[in-house]
Amino acid sequence: MRCSSSRTGTTTHQKLLTSCLAAALACASGANASTNLQAPPAPSAAPAATTAAHVLPLLDVQWLEPQLLRAHRQPPAVPAASIPVTNCNDAGTGSLRDAISGAASGDTIDLTGLSCSTITLTTGMISIGQDDLTLQGPGMLALEVSGNDASRVFWHVGDGTLRINDMTVSHGHKYLAEGDTGNPAGGCVFSLGHVTMDHAWAKYCKAESSDVDTPVRGGAIYAKLGLGLFNSFITSSEAKSTAFETRGGGAYTQGAAMIIESIIENNAATGPVANTGGGIQTGSLRAGGVAGDDVLSKYSTFNNNHAMLGGGIYTNADLSVLNSTVSGNSACGGGGIYVVHGANGSGPVVLDNSTVSGNEAWCAKRPAGITLWNRDGDFRDSTIAFNVTEGSGTKYGAGVRVPNSANTVTLNNTIISNNTLFDGSIHRVDDIGGAGTTSGANNLVFYPSSMTMPAGTILLTDPMLRPLANNGGLTRTHMPNFGSPVIDVGNNVSGATVDQRGSGFPRIRGSQADIGAIEFNLADSIFDDGFDS
Fold first, then answer.
1. Radius of gyration (Cα) for the chain, nearest Å?
2. pLDDT > 70: what percent of the chain?
3. What SS3 string covers 177-228?
4. Phi/psi of residue 70, each to 5°?
5. In angstroms, what CA-CA distances link 24 with 21, 397, 508?
6. Domains in the chain, number
7. In which element (H, E) is residue 136 found?
8. How far is CA 408 from the centre of its chain?
9. pTM attached to this predicted model
10. Euclidean distance between CA atoms 280 and 234, whole angstroms
11. Mean per-residue pLDDT for 151-180?
12. Cα separation values, 185 from 147, 157, 216, 219, Å
């Protein structure tokens, strides 16, 4: 089906996009869009796994669908000197492969005029030797370039920027056997330079290896020097090893990462040794190695990703999470976010107008929400709640853990509460724990263990939060319920004009700000408690 981006009629256009979206979300096996989407199976050349196969978490289609429809756009005009692609053949005159081979650095490859919707690669990945190249598609839901579960999609060896706009890359696969040489990185896209994705989607990508010495990095995207995601998606991808380390189930970069209005969901880093960054990893695995630069997330979601450390995000860079949600991720430790001290990452971890919720740590006495390893934290206008961990004990911190006494977390206008055990026991583990210290004002922390909270912190009090839901804006949030103790008792030292949801949602609605990521603005219905089935 050709999913046109032309807007000949709003209703017709919307129906067409919805049909294309349903097809895009469906499993390759023909299952409908509501089923559990998994990474594509390994080709026959790869050996069977020696350990139990990891099933990727459930892709949240109900949430993802409207976001995909939002991100599918009328593509921008291409430069007059662009090189057109005229057919969906794997190779030959007019093909994408042919257009790229004849391009110069800085050129734009124009795919906006295609009447077909899928390019399936049958003769291997497309090599890109130019430093800078732009691939301009007709729309995220209008064109898919598939590696056919047999090869990567793009292999960029330039040190500039590969720009992938308004298209989907999918079903890429890179496998390295024991004793072979090569780089098992970037199941769909590999770049020795920078990669930017603008209104694009990478899905069903897999990088794997059985080599005992080579780490697998970037299940979908490997961008050595830097990564930018703008209104883009990385989903249902995996970095997998049967013998060594894996880093970045969805994406990996040693450089800076900028993630704006994007979703990283349903990815995994799996293997027998050190598996880090289920959604994304930046920087090297070990602090003191080649460290990453700044990582910025704004209006983005990291959901249902899986690893051993850092289910959603793992980094040794300076990290700022703004107006974003990290939810439903799982790991042995640091189910949501795991941050360590690195050569270029020593500043405080910033969590601003954001939500960290429903993340899991399956190892006993490990933090489920956020781990700050030898790092300070600066948390403002945020909600860290409903994260769950295995086993009980003090000083561990199911919501936030600060192991080192030399580190300080500054808390302003933040909720840390309702973080519990896997078994559903009413016994609560520490919402924040460790040996660190705190400062700040106007917070609600249900149970802080032995850590001393800032003066005036509301303790041992339920914030009365409604379930994680679409309360407006680009991310899901926890709305305070009627009568919540966080309403009109916060501060606005951050100077924010809007809450996590962004434009149209002012930071202060009453006499003063509410504590947490969003302001209370429920319709006045005393019978609506948000927990209806």
1. 23
2. 82
3. CCCCCCCCECCCEEECCEEEEECCEEECCEEEECCCCCCEECCCEEECCEEE
4. -65, -40
5. 5, 40, 40
6. 1
7. strand 133-136
8. 26
9. 0.89
10. 10
11. 96
12. 14, 13, 6, 7
**Domain of 242, in residue numbers:** 116-459
Neighbours of 349 (CB within 10 A): 24
In a domain, 422, yes or no: yes
Phi and psi torsions of 397, nearest 5°? 80, 90
Between 44-53, 299-308, 437-446, 465-474, the lowest mean confidence (pLDDT) is in: 44-53
Phi/psi region, residue 24 (left: phi>0; alpha: psi -120 to 50; beta: rest), is alpha
Confirm if 305 and 57 have CB atoms less than 8 A apart.
yes
- Which of 197, 218, 205, 94 minimizes the C-alpha distance to 151? 205
Between CA 157 and CA 218 the distance in angstroms is 16
In terms of Cβ atoms closer than 10 Å to its own Cβ (0-12, 13-18, 19+), residue 456 is exposed
Per-residue model confidence as pLDDT tens digits over 448-459: 887 899 999 999
| Torsion angle (degrees, nearest 10) of CA 394, 396, 400, 404 | 110
The identity of residue 193, as a single letter, is G
User: How far, in Å, CA of 327 to CA of 139, rounded?
Assistant: 28
Q: Is residue 133 part of a domain?
A: yes
Q: 66 in helix, strand or coil? A: helix
How far apart are alpha carbons 188 and 200 in whole angstroms? 13
Whether residue 281 lies inside any domain: the answer is yes
Do 151 and 126 touch, CB atoms closer than 8 A?
Answer: no
Whether 383 and 352 have beta carbons less than 8 Å apart is answered as: no
pLDDT of residue 64: 82
Calpha distance 133→24 (Å, rounded): 26
Residue 139 lies in a domain: yes
Predicted confidence (pLDDT) at residue 345 exceeds the cutoff of 70: no
CA 255 to chain centre: 16
Rounded Cα gap, residues 271 and 425, in angstroms? 31
Instruction: Specify the DSSP element, H or E, that contains 63.
Output: helix 61-71
Q: Which helix or strand (DSSP H or E) is residue 101 part of?
A: helix 96-101
List, for residues 168-219, the tens digit of each pLDDT value: 999 999 999 887 878 999 999 999 999 999 999 999 999 999 999 999 999 9
Q: Compute the residue count for the chain.
A: 533
Three-state SS for 62?
A: helix
Q: How many CB atoms lie within 10 A of CB 122?
A: 12
Q: What is the mean pLDDT of the chain?
A: 86
In angstroms, rounded to a whole number, what is the distance separating the alpha carbons of residues 224 and 454?
Answer: 41
